[in-house]
Amino acid sequence: MSLQLLGLPAELLHRCLYFLDGYSLLNCRRINRLFNTIIKQSTALQYAIELFAACAEDNPSCALSVSEKLQRLHRRQDAWHRFIRHKFISVDVQHIPSGIYDFTGGVYILGEAPQGMSRFTSGLKYICLPSLDELEDDKEVQIPWHSMETKDAIVDLGMAIQEHDLIAVVTQRTVSSDPSYTRDIFIEFIQFSTGKPHPLASKPMFTVYHNVEALGHASIGIEIVGDLLVLLLTFPFSPTTDDRLFVYNWKTATRTIVHTAHPNTYTSFTFISPTALVMPNNRLATLELFDLTAIGARATLIPVRLNLPALRLRCRIIRAACRGEPNPAPAGLNHRSDQPFHDRAEDALIVFNFLIQQQPRAHGLIAVSCVVHRSTLLDWFERRRYADGELELFWEDWGGPRGTRWFDANFVVTRWVTTTCGQRFAVVKEDGPSRISVMDFNPYRVRRIMADDKALPEGVEIPAKTVREAIRGREKRRAFAADGIFDSDMDMDEMDADYEQYGFALYEEEEGVWDEEEDQERVRMDMVPIEKTEEATVWLNCLPTSLPEDLEVFAIPVESSLPYVETVTKRRVRFDAVLIDGERIIGMYMDELHDRVRKVDILYMG
Predict the structure, then answer these.
(1) What is the rounded radius of gyration, in angstroms, for the C-alpha atoms of the chain?
(2) pLDDT > 90: what percent of the chain?
(3) Sign (positive/negative) of CA torsion 308, 422, 525, 319?
(4) Is the four-CA dihedral 233, 238, 243, 248 of positive or negative sign?
(5) CA 279 to CA 483: how far, in whole Å?
(6) Residues 6+ apart with CB under 8 A from 506
(7) Using CA atoms, how far apart are residues 107 and 130, in angstroms rounded to an integer?
(8) Concatenated DSSP letters of 49-87
(9) How far apart are CA 390 and CA 380, in angstroms?
(10) For residue 579, how far is the Cα from the chain centroid?
(11) How many other CB atoms sit within 10 Å of the CB of residue 312?
(12) Rounded Cα gap, residues 403 and 398, in angstroms
């Protein structure tokens, strides 16, 4: 007699379900009442579902119980959504910082300059931020600065602390200054926890480039994932020096790839998988996706090219910066962390900040930002890397309008690119005081809100009862505006009477409810206010938006529609920039020249 699955004891069914992912568990809840009951009554299965919905993954090294992990996950998600600040700490910068910085895994690091006006970096200073659970509510916290020294001038650094307990420091040494300026460039591998040479590096220091002759300073981009270290070396003020991308196995000090390009082609890159990366090509206005599994120092990198929106004639990208946090890690690699969970790298956002200029250079710089999920780029890379035919895709063909969201960044701070973590993207306006905006691009949260019958907050002047009705009303209002109905001579009272039945009010009426100009702009963008708390207003943006045409740098209208939920604080802060990780916002105060960090505030969100 064959045994039916549903005939198994509930304990065995639970054990079978335990090995499913969150998405499969949600589907199993729909099978019948028995499955639904087992899943709903199991803390472990509910935790798996909530991790999936939060685009997070469990940290098996954390000793907390599943119920405690689930509670903390709920607390974190709620805190970010409603901007609930659980703890606040201020830290003064007690040294003269240079322009080098990084922030990842709770470690905030700044370069140290030897004297006031110098951009020279002689050492590194860092603070290790405690997690929220390590802080006592009624106790004042003092966070000390620690030092890290090197023999040579520091150019940049890369961190893989959670993955390898590693900091890779790029240094340079002057070889000759007469008749021409030449230098050697090195990488030094330091174990973060001890400050000593890293024990897994066969060579604690090796030469990247010997006797390089170039004008001006070297610009470095460096990332470490698994055994791979990728270093981008450019000289922005040397028009005859090629851009170079080096790929190493950092443990064996073996160089596997060198990729060269014309000067001023590249300025940044980030990983999209443990063995692939994306690099904006400034000359071609494309995103280039590279496979790093090629072996041999002379291996040729052939990119998959995703075109960006076409630029106008004589316009070009001057600089691109990109970042995705956390970095993807090879399978089976454990986090060196006591956090109960982490954001999933595979689902994380990548932000691209572009500076565009119309030639000649007398024209001003135009700043725009674009966000896209790492998985979107990786999906196209996997589709095209082995395909026959063209490896270049037009903007519309790879789903750019649907899979990205573009922002006019001329009035927000873009100098610091460490503004995303997981699904979240934080910004503040320039020339503060400013409200903090945290945008959440989690597709599951957005989808749930869009389908929800949750009541709208009071006092928003929207003739609809629920979020879903308000979305339909905004779609109808857009359709009416496109048809030119709002330009008619219809009496305003008649308009109100006619349009309320469709679930929307006229733009002018709805804008009048909001005191802040930026909130009125959100109304004009057809965003839906879905919640108002003491600390913040929460908005939903699920309809397409376009970059302003008066930017005058794109040849086509740039429309994008990646949906997101935006939490905007009611209070203004005097931060000159913000950085984020999974549980904190760092607000930075700059000096009078807006050049160096003098103080940071750490806001603990959960």
Answers:
(1) 26
(2) 67
(3) negative
(4) negative
(5) 41
(6) 486, 492, 495, 496, 499
(7) 9
(8) HHHHHTTEEE-TT--S-HHHHHHHHHHHHHHHHHT---E
(9) 13
(10) 10
(11) 14
(12) 9
Q: What would the pLDDT profile of 585-604 be if each residue is shown by its tens digit?
A: 999 999 877 678 999 999 99
Q: How far apart are CA 597 and CA 416, in angstroms?
A: 12
Q: Are 373 and 347 in contact (CB under 8 A)?
A: yes
The secondary element (H helix, E strand) that includes residue 16 is helix 10-17
Residue 106: φ, ψ to 5°: 80, 5
Tell me which residue has tokens 């490896």: 391
Report the C-alpha gap between 441 and 423 in whole angstroms.
5
What's the gap between Cα 219 and its chain centre? 21
Q: What is the 3-state secondary structure (H, E, C) of 301-331?
A: CCCEEEECCCECCCEEEEEEEEEECCCCCCC
In angstroms, the CA 87 to CA 143 distance is: 14
Angle at 124 between CA 122 and CA 129, to 5 degrees: 165
Locate 401 and state its tokens. 């309008």
What is the full DSSP assignment across 201-237?
Answer: -SSSEEEEEEEEE-SS--EEEEEEETTEEEEEEE-TT
Residue 549: other Cβ atoms inside 10 A: 9
Q: What are phi and psi of 105, to 5 degrees?
A: 60, 30
Tell me: pLDDT of 262 over 50: yes
Q: Is the bond preceding 340 in cis, omega lying within 30 degrees of 0?
A: no
- Could you tell me which residues are beta bridge partners of residue 307? 286
Dig out the tokens for 64 from the structure: 């907390």
Is residue 571 predicted with pLDDT exceeding 50?
yes
**What is the DSSP code string of 497-537?**
HHHGGGT---HHHHHTT--SHHHHHHHHTT-EEEEE-SSEE
In angstroms, the CA 397 to CA 95 distance is: 50
| Of the candidates 245, 458, 285, 485, the residue with the CA atom closest to the CA atom of residue 370 | 285
Buried b (16+ CB within 10 A) or exposed e, 165-186: bbbbbbbbeeeeeeeeeebbbb
Q: Per-residue pLDDT averaged across 148-166, rounded?
A: 93
